[in-house]
Backbone:
């Protein structure tokens, strides 16, 4: 019996060794589920382009064609020169030098004061081609032709001084352009986070008692930022053992504000510097108070407006940024926001 | 403690049918020591109730609290509890019929427990994040409706009858599966955590957000059901000699693509359609998503339409422009995938308030992308002394593990921290240790020990130490 089993096993091993197909561990019958994908189906879906340009469709486009498409389909989000930050992080800002292109390392990435752009980071041209083709434009992905993608990419590369104004990018020369990608040598895989068995770079302390640690508080939220995320009292279970902290304006004050006749807080607006950029009606540097008040009626906007005033921001009304106004006093801020959200339009204040 | 009154007055709790704050609230909340309103004069309670809290009333409250906390002994309420003596309406009426809500809904009293965005974090609502309310959840499973959301070009509703999964690349037989095909195949159900690589990324430089929902809320855990990737790849006959990587691709507008470590995929990855016993929610990838246990969420491609086997990584947008970790020397770590061991106390936590000194069950979550949680320790003095937390429930690989810790708060300032060690022997580092190695600009993979400062007035704040 045992010799039969051994012989059988030997035969099986031989068979498996001789066969190009290894023994399947699939349950019987499973091989009948699913069907062969056709060439046309694979071609329709397998649109990825690898760093070695496997999968890249043939085609070409030049900088000028790219600019035309860019202005029509891309500029509203990314800005005419790819430098806008009102919706997405900038694509190109001119922080790339000839030396960077020569070295394949963008030196500005070491400088925390310099905004990181897409072109400063991305090492592989294939990535940009692949992503634009599969996901752009934002609201109509996969609507661009390969030639349009080549042209757009030529335009972006031109904005970053990687190619000249008269450059025509194509599947024939894209590998040469890859050799000018500014951060092509800027990536490392020398870390432990790719594989589950990788080595950690930082190990925690295991001390259990009388550990020597510095317990001084080095960072916490300033009081004015406590309600930047809304009223925390409304963000924990209302009846539990850990009620959330009240971070909105005190209720009594809100009630008093809504009950009283609201006047324009002229003094506060002036002292705080708001009127330097905003006027009651009509666009100045920023939107008019009339327009702001029309958009943000209701107490649910209080936290947002406070955040915008104290932190600044851009992109809501236009690309011009509003600077942070951290020095507006708490009382003035309260008065200004109460007025902005009140929905009672244009009751006359002291300025008449 | 102040917020409690104000919150009630806001009317959010009006359904509780409480006319005003009275002594019986103390009993409902189950504190051993009386909650403030039990030892406050009726006049002060009424005043706070109608006019909120000002500095003078705050001083009165503090004085009353100090007196009351001297005796932490269970007491009979000063007056008998009207909610006991007078039967509420629900005890004296006919209840609602079955299937009033054909798909059940949480109690209206749980309206505060929802996903939330962080204002200003993103400038579109399609490429954005909604954070899980960890501060209000229990156990090791996230309700599907509260699973965090992170999309790169919005979420979509997919007709499952028109959805396909294609497997191609280095395979003998490129295949197409319908959803019905996939549901016929041998299935597995596994509990795993899902954490965005950028979770806690806002906190690299300094404290930026107030609550655990925003510091750690790109974290959820579910039981996922689906087909092992290994089975599908074997069915297709993948090239064992050359195959090293797997590309996962979504069917949404973004066509999300990520390179997956083939070894990891063959080990425990799942092509999942089920989540917590039902189909995936649309925001979580209905009808099909990739589950790559222990690996950052961006690789768990939603609305999965294709798996391609290859011999090189793909360098996709989210492997070159985002989800790369910037080091101080200007180099980016690329293909950083694993979520290393991490833990956080979920309550009490930032933005919450302890109403009285006394006993608290400090509770939190621990997890590791490299294996199983082996222990969790808690410190209440900012890391000077640590005691073991009690692990509650199963300890599963690459899953959330719930821990609890008995604590008597004396009413003095405290600094709560938790620290996990996993089965590889790795212990969660401090933020300072991480920053010393990686700087503050790497955005991703911040698994630092979190500190919550409990102030003497009971308010809990997000802080960083030393």
Residues:
């Amino acid at each position: 019996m045992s010799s039969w089993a051994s012989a059988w096993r030997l035969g099986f091993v031989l068979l498996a060794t001789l066969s190009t197909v290894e023994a399947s561990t699939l349950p019987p019958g499973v091989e009948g589920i699913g069907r062969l994908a056709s060439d046309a189906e694979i071609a329709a879906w397998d649109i990825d382009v690898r760093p070695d340009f496997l999968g890249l469709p043939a085609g070409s486009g030049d900088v000028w064609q790219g600019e035309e498409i860019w202005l029509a389909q891309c500029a509203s989000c990314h800005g005419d020169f790819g430098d806008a930050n009102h919706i997405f992080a900038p694509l190109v800002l001119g922080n790339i030098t000839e030396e960077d292109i020569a070295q394949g390392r963008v030196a500005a990435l070491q400088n925390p004061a310099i905004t990181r752009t897409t072109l400063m980071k991305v090492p592989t041209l294939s990535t940009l081609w692949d992503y634009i083709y599969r996901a752009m434009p934002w609201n109509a992905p996969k609507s661009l032709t390969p030639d349009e993608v080549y042209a757009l990419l030529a335009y972006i590369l031109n904005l970053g001084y990687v190619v000249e104004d008269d450059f025509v990018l194509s599947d024939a020369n894209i590998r040469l352009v890859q050799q000018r990608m500014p951060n092509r040598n800027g990536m490392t895989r020398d870390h432990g986070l790719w594989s589950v068995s990788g080595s950690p770079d930082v190990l925690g302390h295991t001390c259990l008692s009388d550990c020597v640690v510095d317990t001084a508080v080095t960072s916490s939220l300033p009081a004015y930022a406590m309600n930047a995320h809304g009223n925390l009292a409304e963000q924990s279970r209302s009846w539990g053992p850990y009620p959330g902290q009240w971070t909105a304006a005190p209720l009594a004050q809100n009630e008093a504000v809504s009950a009283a006749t609201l006047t324009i807080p002229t003094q506060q607006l002036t002292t705080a510097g708001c009127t330097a950029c905003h006027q009651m009606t009509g666009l100045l540097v920023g939107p008019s108070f009339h327009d702001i008040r029309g958009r943000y009626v209701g107490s649910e906007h209080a936290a947002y407006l406070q955040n915008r005033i104290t932190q600044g921001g851009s992109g809501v009304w236009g690309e011009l940024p509003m600077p942070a106004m951290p020095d507006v006093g708490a009382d003035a801020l309260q008065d200004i926001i109460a007025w902005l959200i009140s929905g009672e339009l244009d009751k006359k204040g002291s300025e008449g | 403690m102040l917020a409690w009154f104000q919150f009630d007055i806001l009317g959010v709790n009006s359904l509780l049918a409480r006319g005003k704050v009275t002594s019986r609230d103390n009993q409902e909340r189950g504190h051993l020591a009386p909650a403030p309103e039990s030892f406050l004069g009726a006049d002060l309670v009424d005043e706070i109730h109608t006019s909120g809290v000002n500095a003078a009333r705050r001083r009165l409250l503090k004085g009353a609290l100090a007196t009351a906390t001297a005796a932490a002994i269970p007491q009979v309420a000063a007056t008998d509890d009207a909610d006991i003596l007078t039967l509420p309406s629900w005890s004296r009426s006919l209840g609602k019929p079955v299937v009033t809500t054909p798909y059940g809904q949480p109690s209206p009293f749980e309206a505060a427990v929802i996903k939330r965005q962080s204002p200003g974090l993103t400038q579109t609502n399609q490429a954005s994040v909604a954070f899980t309310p960890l501060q209000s959840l229990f156990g090791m499973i996230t309700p599907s409706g509260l699973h965090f959301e992170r999309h790169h070009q919005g979420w979509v509703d997919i007709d499952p009858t028109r959805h396909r999964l294609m497997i191609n690349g280095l395979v003998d037989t490129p295949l197409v599966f319908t959803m019905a095909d996939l549901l016929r195949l041998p299935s597995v159900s596994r509990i795993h955590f899902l954490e965005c690589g950028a979770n806690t990324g806002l906190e690299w430089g300094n404290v930026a957000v107030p609550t655990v929902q925003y510091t750690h809320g790109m974290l959820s855990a579910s039981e996922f059901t689906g087909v092992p990737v290994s089975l599908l790849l074997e069915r297709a006959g993948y090239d064992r000699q050359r195959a090293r990587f797997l590309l996962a691709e979504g069917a949404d507008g973004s066509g999300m693509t990520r390179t997956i470590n083939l070894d990891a995929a063959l080990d425990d990855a799942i092509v999942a359609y089920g989540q917590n016993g039902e189909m995936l929610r649309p925001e979580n990838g209905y009808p099909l998503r990739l589950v790559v246990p222990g690996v950052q969420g961006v690789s768990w491609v939603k609305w999965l339409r294709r798996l391609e086997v290859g011999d090189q990584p793909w360098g996709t947008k989210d492997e070159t422009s985002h989800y790369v970790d910037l080091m101080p020397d200007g180099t980016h770590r690329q293909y950083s995938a694993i979520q290393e061991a991490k833990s956080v106390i979920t309550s009490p936590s930032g933005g919450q308030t302890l109403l009285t000194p006394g006993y608290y069950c400090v509770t939190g979550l621990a997890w590791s992308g490299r294996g199983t949680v082996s222990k969790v320790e808690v410190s209440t003095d900012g890391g000077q002394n640590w005691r073991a937390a009690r692990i509650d429930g199963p300890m599963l690989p690459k899953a959330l593990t719930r821990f609890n810790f008995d604590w008597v708060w004396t009413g003095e300032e405290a600094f709560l921290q938790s620290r996990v060690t996993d089965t590889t022997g790795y212990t969660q580092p401090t933020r300072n240790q991480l920053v010393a190695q990686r700087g503050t600009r790497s955005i991703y993979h911040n698994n630092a020990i979190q500190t919550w400062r409990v102030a003497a007035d009971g308010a809990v704040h997000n802080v960083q130490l030393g």
Notes: DSSP finds 14 helices and five strands in chain A. Confidence is low (pLDDT under 50) at residues 1-21, 252-261, 346-352 of chain A. The longest strand of chain A covers residues 217-220. The CA atoms of residues 44 and 135 of chain A lie 15 Å apart.
